[in-house]
Design goal:
By secondary structure, the chain is mainly β. The protein has one domain: Jelly Rolls, CATH 2.60.120.10. The chain is built from no helices and 8 strands. A hairpin with a 2-residue loop joins β1 and β2. It is globular and about 60 Å long. The chain starts with about 25 loop residues before the first strand and ends in a 6-residue tail after the last strand. The relative contact order is 0.28. Pfam families: Cupin_2. It comes from Cupriavidus basilensis. This is Cupin domain-containing protein.
C-alpha cells in the first residue's frame, strides 16, 4: 500500500437490497469477476428456461437460493428438484440443467458462483 493513495476500496452490498422486479427477463448482476471465478446475483420473477434449452457450462457452478423458490431440472432426472430458501447445489461442469420454473409471486434471488472445473486425476 502506498501511503499517498491509502487503502484500496472495499466494496460492500446486500444481496437482498434493491431486488429488481422484471417479469420480462431474469436479471444477472456480477458481484465479482476474476479469471476462473465469477460470483453473481440472479433475480428471477416467474421465468423459466426456454423449452428444450439446457445450460451446459464448461465451469462448475454452485448456487444458493436466497429467497423465493424454483424448480431446477437436471438432465437424466425424472422431475425437477424443488429449491426453497436456503437450498444450495453444486452443478459440476457439463451437468446439463434447466430452470423449470421460478416463483411468480415473489422474486427468486440466487447467489451463483462459477469457477474452473475440478480436474480429475
Amino acid at each position: 500500500m502506498d501511503a499517498t493513495t491509502g487503502p484500496p476500496p472495499v466494496p460492500q452490498g446486500n444481496l437482498l437490497a434493491q431486488v429488481p422486479v422484471d417479469r420480462d427477463a431474469e436479471r444477472f448482476e456480477p458481484l465479482l469477476d476474476r479469471p476462473g471465478l465469477k460470483i453473481e446475483r440472479i433475480v428471477s420473477n416467474g421465468q423459466a428456461s426456454p423449452p428444450d434449452f439446457w445450460y451446459d457450462s464448461v465451469q462448475d457452478e454452485w448456487v444458493l437460493l436466497l429467497s423465493g423458490s424454483a424448480g431446477l431440472h437436471i438432465e437424466g432426472e425424472a422431475a425437477p428438484r424443488r429449491l426453497m430458501t436456503g437450498d444450495w447445489l453444486h452443478l459440476p461442469a457439463h451437468c446439463r440443467h434447466r430452470v423449470a420454473w421460478t416463483d411468480a409471486d415473489q422474486p427468486t434471488v440466487w447467489l451463483a458462483v462459477h469457477c474452473a472445473a475440478a480436474t480429475q486425476g
